[in-house]
Write a structure and sequence with these properties.
Length: about 450
């Protein structure tokens, strides 16, 4: 047996060099997309060791200063001390709430809460492993079967987060150098993050413009193998519904795959509240990936993809965010399952939510408020067209006992700054009348009092 001699410092350095060389060769072989630094060794590194000097950190500080100069309270991270339905409690004070996705009142529904509690008693608080290993519980299969039934697909897969579902699934199915992703330019962040992660070519088409999509595919389709068109059922900033039948026509014409994100449509739109398929009376097989999230109407936490069995099986054995992540927790799976069943058996919830939203919309319009393209959904923006006005308006309403979130530049363009109202089945006509009245009154006052205020446009990143 040969004795192991400790390596000298020089030998260790040499060994490390070899290892790094090997890694670099591997990265090259894997066609790594590492971008060489354009600064060629001239970076003043000290500037990058202090987070306070990052431009995006300074931009945030500038926004806090704006809050101070307008003398409004920070509207973010307010602590809601109760189950939020049409009401909430903040700092011990009861307020009307227009800021929760509890669209059909299932978070707090006793049957959903009881199902979650029973699941904790039976299976614990975590499944403690990836499902492909030892994390699989009966609830997972039951939930996926119920979702497939709800949507009318062969199968479904559930993951621990709605956001992560789009990131990991789009990021994994689409490939660099071979594939193309074409998405609505108002797509949610997780669609874009997934597209970036995939490394596939990305092209955004103007919001809801299926003719532009058709043109993009006419010009580019033949250059790529897989093409994914990604849209949302209901867009969460504007509350408008995509013309999904048109998108199906175009995706079929160009042999593309279609993903429809139903985060804000499932449980809300359609005669029975069963989302886009219900609203347009679609053949479920015409959409390849029905994506959804449990954090809204399902009163839970997690995400899903429903579609063909072959797709679901493939994703279950391969998607990194599923294979290398824990399974959805017993309480969350049980809550989503109970909600799915209630959604199917109690369409009155969605119908009530839709009636409330229609009432809110017509009353807002009657007061001359700008509600953008919102129609038939539970999301109604009131566009102020000025971030400072949106902040001041949200603050004034908060003082009146109304909690609604402002959406400011740079989350939207300055002229699209708004308050965003989420309407639920629990709201009452009285809640709606009071809120519209106060909103119209304060917006008029703010516009007169403050004129056209400008909001700091600090470059990000
Ligand atoms: C359209 C859309 N997709 C996905 C998500 C992410 O879902 P979750 O918050 O459940 O992770 C959201 C969140 O609001 C969304 O609006």
């Amino acid at each position: 047996m040969s004795e192991e001699r400790p390596l000298s410092a020089e030998e260790k350095r040499e060994k490390l060099k070899q290892l790094l060389k090997q890694k670099a060769a591997q990265a090259e072989a894997a066609k790594s997309t590492v971008v060489a630094s354009p600064s060629k060794g001239n970076v003043d590194t000290s500037r990058f060791a202090d987070v306070n000097q990052f431009p995006e950190v300074q931009a945030l500080a500038a926004q806090f200063q704006t809050l101070q100069s307008l003398q409004v309270e920070n509207p973010y991270f307010r602590v809601n001390e109760v189950i939020v339905n049409n009401k909430t409690q903040i700092d011990g004070r009861e307020l009307l709430s227009w800021s929760s996705y509890n669209y059909i009142g299932l978070s707090g529904d006793v049957r959903v809460s009881e199902a979650a509690k029973a699941a904790v008693d039976q299976y614990g608080t975590s499944v403690s492993a990836s499902r492909i290993a030892t994390g699989e519980k009966p609830l997972h299969g039951q939930l996926e079967k119920a979702l497939a039934e709800l949507i009318g697909t062969e199968d479904a897969i559930t993951l621990v987060s709605g956001h992560a579902t789009n990131v990991t699934v789009i990021g994994h199915l689409m490939r660099p150098g071979k594939d193309l992703i074409v998405y609505d330019d108002l797509s949610h962040n997780c669609i874009i993050e997934g597209a970036v992660l995939s490394g596939a070519r990305r092209i955004a088409f103007p919001h809801e413009n299926y003719e532009a999509l058709d043109q993009i595919l006419t010009d580019n389709r033949a250059d790529y193998e897989r093409v994914l068109v990604a849209i949302e059922g209901v867009y969460s900033m504007d509350g408008d519904i995509a013309d999904v039948p048109k998108f199906i026509e175009i995706k079929k014409k160009h042999n593309a795959l279609l993903l429809v994100d139903e985060a804000h449509s499932m449980g809300v739109i359609g005669p029975n509240g069963l989302g886009v398929r219900d609203y347009f009376n679609l053949n479920p097989n015409d959409v390849d990936l029905w994506m959804g999230t449990f954090s809204k109407s399902f009163a839970s936490c997690g995400g899903y993809i429903a579609g063909r069995k072959a797709l679901v099986d493939y994703l279950k054995y391969n998607t990194p965010g599923f294979v290398y992540s824990v399974g959805i927790s017993p309480a969350n799976a049980a809550a989503a399952l109970a909600s799915t069943r209630i959604m199917m058996s109690e369409p009155w919830r969605a119908q009530k939510c839709q009636a409330n939203a229609a009432s809110f919309l017509s009353k807002a319009k009657a007061k001359g408020l700008d509600t953008g393209p919102s129609k038939d959904t539970a999301v109604v923006p009131i566009i102020t067209g000025n971030s400072a006005h949106a902040l001041l308006l949200a603050d004034a309403l908060f003082k009146e006992g109304i909690n609604v979130q402002p959406i400011l530049y740079p989350a939207v363009a300055e002229e699209a700054a708004r308050l965003r109202f989420f309407i639920t089945s629990d709201h009452t006509e009285e809640n709606i009348l009071f809120t519209i009245d106060k909103t119209a009154h304060h917006l008029e006052r703010i516009r007169k009092e403050y004129g056209n205020l400008s909001f700091p446009k600090v470059p990000m990143g």
